[in-house]
Amino acid sequence: MNYKSLLPVEAIIARLDNDFNIDNSDYIPRIAAWCIDLMNQMKVLKYEEKSITVDVDNRFASFPSCCDINRIRVFDENGCEVDKISKTSCGCPVKHSGVEYFTQDKARVETERGSKKYPSRRVIEYDIYNPTGRNYVVVGDNMIELNYDAEEVTIKYLTVVSYFSQTYNCELPVIPNNGKLIECLEYFCMYKILSRGIKHPVFSLNNQLPTNPYLLYRDAYNKAYTSIIVDNQDVNGGLDKGWNQFFYNSTFPK
After folding, report:
1. Three-state DSSP class for 130?
2. 62 in helix, strand or coil?
3. With contact defined as beta carbons under 8 Å apart, do 20 and 203 qualify?
4. Closest CA to 173 of 68, 18, 2, 43
5. In this structure, are residues 249 and 170 in contact, taking their beta carbons and an 8 Å threshold?
């Protein structure tokens, strides 16, 4: 995402305290989870590509669970990408299947295609051949098997851009510094706070606009989503497609 700056989760805590003057600190440990929950729904979490080098044992290589098996890229010791193979493709540039016509119909193909009169045809499967000779297959949630001998491979994967929070004592994703998104996160967190039974002298879930944070959040959601799209249209090659997992901290009671 092409944001000018990024914010920590603590910025939302500070804004909530300043804007709503909440007379309770019970909500603070939960703000991170709520913010990540909403940003995941909106698919606005910022991603970056990282790489790790892992050892290969008898052609098997395993990697951390933080790597999404469907979004990894594998490279050999020379920096060349190793293709993934499956039942329908081997990753090489050679064509594996296509449509061919019976001999007696070849002469009619060009003249009759425009008139949508297709002659007899058949789908044929070509022999799979990989000129590079190096491929891998997925054999588990975090393991691949190579078809060649190697000591190590490099795994490149997408991960959410994060920072270490002293408040939460763990890694947390950064928040895009988009004004409408920040406002939406504030209202969403305030709605979650009141949902836990905390009372506020002005805001209530029983009120109408403009003192019902749930209605404010719903009203701000589409505006924030549109603003994010405008900020990031066609940026970053489609890397920012959302975190595949929500953030849950076992220390947060339900």
Report:
1. coil
2. strand
3. yes
4. 43
5. yes
Residue 186 has phi, psi (to 5 degrees) of -60, -50
Looking at the DSSP assignment, which residues form a beta bridge with residue 160? 47
Contact (Cβ atoms closer than 8 angstroms) between residue 28 and residue 20 = no
Give residue 104's region: left, alpha or beta (phi > 0; psi -120 to 50). Answer: alpha
| Residue whose C-alpha is closest to residue 239's, from 67, 46, 50 | 46
Residues 202-242 pLDDT 10s = 999 999 999 999 999 999 999 999 998 888 764 544 444 43
Is 65 exposed, middle or buried, given 0-12, 13-18 or 19+ CB atoms closer than 10 A? Answer: exposed
Report the predicted TM-score, pTM, of the whole model to 2 decimal places.
Answer: 0.63
Residue 15, Cβ neighbours under 10 Å: how many? 16
Residue partners of 198: CB distance under 8 A and separation at least 6: 22, 24, 26, 27
Is the separation of the CB atoms in 106 and 87 below 8 Å? no
